[in-house]
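Dear colleague,

As promised, here are the two records you asked about, laid out in our usual form so they can be pasted straight into your sheet.

NAME FIELD: protein one
SEQUENCE, THEN STRUCTURE:
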Amino acid sequence: MISQDRQRETTLLAITERLRTQDNRATMDPMFCVQIKIRDSCYDPEYGHGESIWVETESGDYDEVPPNTPGAKEFGYRDRWETVMVAFTEEGCKEIDSVLQSTHEDVA
C-alpha cells in the first residue's frame, strides 16, 4: 500500500511540475484546444463566399465529386472549427487527438 501511495505522489508531483513550467514555454495560464474542422454544405452557391463543391445527388450517397460529373449539382459551403476539448497540458491534447484519430476516419 505504501508503494502505491508513493507512486501516486510521484505521478502527481510530475504532473504539477509540467503544469507549472509547461516545458518553459512562458505560458502562464495555458489552455490547449483540440478542434475539428466541420464543413457545412448544401448552401446556394451565392452564399458560399465564393467557394463551392460539386455533390453527386442521383445515387443518394451525396458524395463530393469533381465538377461536371454527371448527376452532380453545385453547392456552396463554409468551413468552421469546432472545439472538441480543452486541456491544460499539450500531452492531454495529444492523447485526445490520438483517440479521435483512431475512432474517426475523417479527423486529420
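NAME FIELD: protein two
SEQUENCE, THEN STRUCTURE:
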Amino acid sequence: MSTTNQINDTERNQSTTTDLAEADSRKCTHWTRDNGRQFITDPNGDVVNIARLTAYAEYGDAIYDAHAHHELPLRLIDAPDFLAVLSETEHGRFHGADPEPVMVDGIPRLRPGGEDE
C-alpha cells in the first residue's frame, strides 16, 4: 500500500494525487542562465523563474497574467522588496523608455512612474 498526497495546482485549476514514494525519488533542479537569471525545473519538467515564484509568494494571483518587474538596475536580485507586478504592456513600455533609476534610501531603483515610497 502506498502513501499518497493530494496536490492542488491553483494556476491550472486542477488537482492531482502523487505517490509519495515516487515523489521522494524525483527532485527539483535549480539552474542559472548565462545572463544570471535563476530557475527551478520541477520533476514534471515545468520551469519557473525564481523572480516569478517570489512574486507569486508575495502578491498571489496578481502575478498570474503579469510580469515580475525587477526594481534594481541589476535585475538578478529576486527579493520581494525589489519586485513589482506589472502588466506585460506596462513592463514593455517602462523598459522601452530606458528609465533612469530613482534613489530610494540610497538604493537606485527602477520604479514605474518614479514612485519613491
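A couple of things worth noting about protein two: The first helix runs from residue 20 to 25. The helical segments are 20-25, 50-59, 88-96.

Best,
R.
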